[in-house]
Specification:
The complex is a heterodimer of chains A (361) and B (273). With 361 residues, chain A is α+β, with helices and mostly antiparallel strands. Chain A is built from eight helices and 20 strands. The longest helix of chain A is centred in the middle third of the chain and has 18 residues. A two-stranded antiparallel ribbon of chain B has the order 1-2. The chains are: A alpha+beta (361), B mainly alpha (273).
Chain lengths: 361, 273
């Protein structure tokens, strides 16, 4: 894939009144790439999408498509089509009129519009619905009409603003794959805004995680999942268990001091940069291994913590335990249940333990 | 006394007011329209059509033209309030457009009489600007004056309803059209107005009915024939004490007003089925 910007953002910033919504957004997107803009609500991801679409102008920076500056072009001159979260179908128009409206605006002949609309309907599985109004469609059908309306004008870039968030959980899973397959087949560049981590992981070539209007990290799903660049990214990607440890780097390893729940040990730095002092250790519940205290034998490099089971529940597939380690409570999964009150060892493999210098140090 | 009777007793005063002050006079005047010298007959209607056919047509034409103009103006105002991109201009318009609503019809007539007459302010300004020579100045105090008065007075009311409805439509439906390349005028006509069609119709029908019943404006502005039905009714009653013909004229304007309401009801039923 050509990495040097098909779609490029350089130092883009946006403010709303006195609030800085976006700052220092630098991003280069290749043709045909599927990018997920991931972040919690209020992080600026929808603002970034609307800025790309041309509904708002950045307060500084520029947006380029094929090295052409489009920063101040109106929405329809950018070769981008937006699928809205609410779908924004026009209630007074039929399915066919909704899909064909963009072509009508472009002055395409009526017969040509009809044939393109029916081709679009066939592609999206909307055959026989052309005369229906949006109110008479299911959520999934509306979503496909919205997609068809955007694709009908043959855009180079498809912008998706949480298009799956209004669908039932079950439909959503299959639509993810359909949408991804369609994007690959058409070879269209897609930018998908979502707050759903799994959705971003499953659909995107590359994930851009936004935090407070800045890019916290971008990279492939495996990269952001397994090598989070910051405590925020680690937490956002599911490493919600957090412990405070102390230690110092020693060549290629980081020496962890003994704490209230752990003995002194070392983990490989593996390219990470850590300063001596307090560190924040984060891991996912599913990365931890639980052992009865007397059975524990460390077989893999990692850190073992002593603790007591406080509660156990079965969310399906595994047992989830709340374990107290020193003064902290964490979650840990295990294939079998440990009853509350049991003394246990929690082993976190080195590659699943994310260490970050605490902001205070 | 049972609770039921008590309830009825409590509603009775209100019912009595409606029955005696509204329904009964309506029936009386409807019956009165068909009474000639104490017997049933079509005499009043024959007389009405002999004397006032021109005025009936005049009324329908004036009110229809006004309704169309009010519709266009209120769409323009609502559209600018919804789609306008200049925040100061939008704020000024939002503040300004409602004022005529608070001015009574009689005062509107008074204002426009001085404004539109041959030596009125409108012509004076045009003459001073060199757009018009004093000889070409004409009075607008005829049917045009009535239309101007109606449109000026009723547009804010319809615009208020329409702008409210426009503000509550999903903004993303507007953005979606702009995203596909629709100009602002096309967005207004093809996306926004169809979504507020019902509100617009209701506003226009209420305006139509209001304009049918205004007496002061035709009396103040258009003191000539043909004139509007309200002026004729007042004339019949005040000058001749001829309640029969006045009742017949009233019944005709009631029919005109309700035919508009009927068109609306039929359209809304069709939409629902």
């Amino acid at each position: 894939m050509e990495r040097d910007g098909f779609l490029e953002l350089r130092g883009v910033a946006s403010r709303y009144g006195s609030t800085q919504v976006l700052s220092d957004i630098d991003l280069s997107i290749a043709k045909g790439e599927f990018i997920a803009l991931l972040g919690s609500s209020g992080c600026g991801k929808t603002t970034l999408l609307r800025l790309l679409a041309g509904f708002i102008s950045p307060s500084s920076g520029e947006v380029k498509v094929r090295h052409r500056d489009v920063t101040h072009l109106p929405p329809d001159k950018r070769g981008m089509a937006l699928v809205f979260q609410s779908y924004a179908l026009w209630p007074h128009m039929t399915v066919a009129q909704n899909i064909g409206y963009g072509l009508k605006l472009k002055g395409v002949a009526r017969a040509e519009i009809a044939s393109r609309v029916s081709a679009m309907q066939a592609m999206l599985g909307l055959e026989g619905l052309e005369a229906r109004k949006p109110q008479a469609l299911s959520g999934g059908q509306r979503q496909r009409v919205a997609l068809g309306r955007a694709l009908a004008i043959d855009p180079e870039i498809l912008l998706l603003d949480e298009p799956l968030s209004n669908l039932d959980a079950r439909i959503r899973l299959s639509v993810r794959h359909e949408l991804r397959a369609l994007q690959k087949r058409l070879g269209i560049t897609a930018i998908h805004v979502t707050h759903d981590r799994e959705e971003a992981m499953v659909m995107a070539d590359r994930i851009v995680i936004l935090n407070a209007g800045r890019i916290a990290q971008h990279g492939s799903p495996e990269e952001v999942y397994n090598r989070p660049a910051s405590a925020f990214v680690a937490a956002f990607m599911g490493a919600e268990n957090v412990l405070s440890l102390n230690g110092h780097p020693d060549r290629h390893a980081f020496m962890l001091q003994a704490g209230p729940a752990n003995e002194a040990t070392t983990v490989q730095l593996a390219g990470r940069h850590l300063l001596p002092g307090a560190v924040e250790a984060r891991f996912r519940p599913e990365a931890a291994h639980l052992f009865a205290k007397e059975e524990f034998l460390p077989r893999r490099p990692g850190v073992a913590f002593r603790g007591e089971v406080l509660a156990v529940a079965y969310p399906g597939g595994h047992w989830r335990h709340v374990v107290r380690l020193g003064d902290r409570e964490i979650m840990a999964d295990a294939p079998q249940a440990f009853s509350p009150g049991m003394q246990v060892a929690v082993h976190v493999p080195a590659e699943s333990l994310f260490l970050f210098n605490s902001p205070a140090s | 006394m049972s609770r039921r009777l008590l309830g009825l007793t409590l509603v009775l005063p209100a019912l009595a007011v409606i029955a005696f002050l509204f329904i009964l006079p309506l029936i009386m005047s409807a019956v009165g329209a068909f009474q000639v010298d104490g017997a049933f007959g079509w005499g009043n209607f024959e007389k009405t059509f002999d004397l006032y056919t021109k005025d009936i047509v005049f009324t329908v034409v004036i009110v229809s033209i006004s309704t169309v103009l009010i519709g266009i103006a209120s769409i323009a105002i609502g559209g600018y309030l919804t789609l306008g991109e200049h925040p100061v201009a939008v704020a000024i318009l939002r503040w300004l457009y409602r004022w005529p609503m608070f001015i009574p019809f009689i005062v509107v007539g008074q204002i426009l009489r001085t404004f539109l007459s041959k030596n009125g302010m409108m012509n004076n300004v045009a003459i001073n600007l060199g757009l018009l020579t004093p000889i070409d100045a004409v009075s607008f105090l005829d049917w045009r004056g009535i239309v101007i008065a109606f449109v000026w007075k009723q547009t804010p009311f319809v615009a208020l309803l329409v702008a409210g409805a426009m503000a509550s439509i999903n903004r993303e439906t507007i953005d979606a059209a702009r995203n596909l390349g629709a100009s602002r005028l096309r967005v207004l006509i093809e996306i926004v107005v169809p979504q507020v069609g019902t509100t617009l119709t209701v506003g226009l029908i209420l305006s139509f009915v209001t304009m049918m019943s205004v007496l002061s404006v035709p009396l103040m502005i258009n003191a000539q024939t043909p004139t509007m039905l309200t002026a004729d009714i007042a004339f019949r009653v005040n000058s001749y004490g001829d309640y029969g013909v006045a009742n017949a004229l009233g019944l005709i304007s009631l029919l005109l007003a309700s035919s508009v309401a009927w068109i609306y009801l039929r359209a809304s039923l069709k939409e629902r089925s």
